[in-house]
């Protein structure tokens, strides 16, 4: 059985699904490798125009498999091992194509991070994020604290990380952790992707990278990057064709 399934439709939308439901789609080394292969394919295969990330079963992902914490780790070895999972999450975040997380159930740990780095995050009414790290004597990692602060602000992130353990779908929507709460997350994800694919692929990629950059640089540096990107895009066939269509209508 494939731990991660991949289904490419006629529109170029790649549905990537975690497929370890008996373990609540926990991410061990084999699952991480399969996810990495899927997103490397998404990045390099021209036939893939967008990605929907979801999961089989009742859970989205229980995060890193707890069995890895049963070892007596040397801190340096643990950081090296964890870096592989951080790289996977960064790969998803920096994919220059539309990504939608269809969060069908509970997400914890690295599963939460995989969902939050997608461009659009759709959550089923019964799904929730669980921040269980404090009960395990650890903290959210792989960008789990830093990225959450950038996404929803310090005060709200403090409430999530320090003040509670579960964030239900409606609270996640209120906090800005998800884009919408919908009954059929995969169907809604396909509708969102269809809208996203109406944009020029190059312009979408540039906007996506600039949005990430904007949270990490000062205003002047951001405007310089925007100007460089705009000047590169203005000569593309997609831009010229779009302008011609508008002027001819």
Could you characterize the architecture of this molecule?
- The structure is a single chain.
- The protein is an alpha/beta fold.
- It contains 10 helices and 10 strands.
- It has helices spanning 29-44, 75-93, 109-116, 146-152, 154-163, 169-175, 185-196, 201-214, 219-233, 237-248; strands at 4-8, 13-18, 50-55, 59-61, 99-103, 106-108, 120-123, 128-130, 166-168, 180-181.
- The protein has a 6-stranded mixed β-sheet with strand order 1-2-3-5-7-10, sandwiched between helices. Strands 4-6-8-9 form a 4-stranded mixed β-sheet.
- Helix 1 packs parallel to helix 2 and helix 4 packs across helix 5 (154-163).
Question: Briefly, what is this?
Answer:
Helices cover 48% and strands 16% of the residues. The protein has 249 residues and is of the alpha/beta class. The N and C termini lie far apart (52 Å).
List keywords for this structure.
about 250 residues; alpha/beta; 6-stranded mixed β-sheet; 10 strands
